[in-house]
Amino acid sequence: MSQGRFRRIAWATLAVTLAVILWGAYVRATSSGAGCGSHWPTCNGEVIPRAPTAKTLIEFTHRVTSGIAFLLTLLQLVWAFRAFPRRHAVRLGAVASMFFMVTEAAVGAGLVLFERVAGDTSIARGYWMSAHLINTFLLVASMTLTVLWSSGGPLPRRSSGAPTYVLGGGLLGVLAVGVTGAIAALGDTLFPAKTLSEGLAADVSQAAHVFVQLRVYHPIVAGVVAAYLLFTTGFVTSQRPNLLKPARVVSALVIVQIGAGFLNLFLLAPVAMQLVHLLLADLVWMALVVLTAWSLGEAPASVSSEAPESAAALPWSGLPDEFARPKETPPR
Question: Bridge-partner residues for 155, per DSSP?
């Protein structure tokens, strides 16, 4: 099986998974999580709902697209083992993608079967949402690395320096922002505010629901992590100038995300803005994962003088680094 065709499958798997994630956020924002009742994998006890409501169609569409993403991930796994040799990093990425896709389905099923959807305001739902968010980010990271490694990106190595440890802190920080963001989005859905002043007052009210009280922590954590990421990209490029381009991508996305966060706040978190905010969060995460992979990476054994030409179509192409190009032998 062709490695070139595998790359197209890997890209398609990542793209479809991102679409499923955004549609899942739409399910939550429209309170459609109970559109198929407490049945899973069937919808209201039927394989195909016969008289669906709007919320049933929204939830059923999410399940169908999730199934497509699952099948693509399975195809990616099988193809990786056919197209790449033993112990190749692409196999690792494909296995991790499949693992987190299975756990993603399990968490989604648990949300439905335990009725932690729609109007449920229990504290347990917050834990379920946090686990769902972390698993989703790990799934996206696995798929991103699979695309990177199959496209000629640097293979992982054990040795690392200070930039990698700093970037690791950034990855943990983004996970923290994601968890607080998931809780904040849940509070916005369950307890929407009519005005900005009303929402801010509810955030600090002792009488408000805990999901509302926790909303205030998201912008604080997001601000701290954003500042850390901007510092991190500057530090990494000062230590590793070859990582300037991917570091700039991370910085640019962080700045855009900050603006989107403020806009989401002032507009009182409309559904469309929530989806944009989530998409940017995923892109920040993916860019940071790629930057971390480059900081850890070493050139594949198959890298040759033709590599720059073949990598021209990659999103991380043009990186003037020591990994992507063979070293010249100095004259004796």
Answer: 298
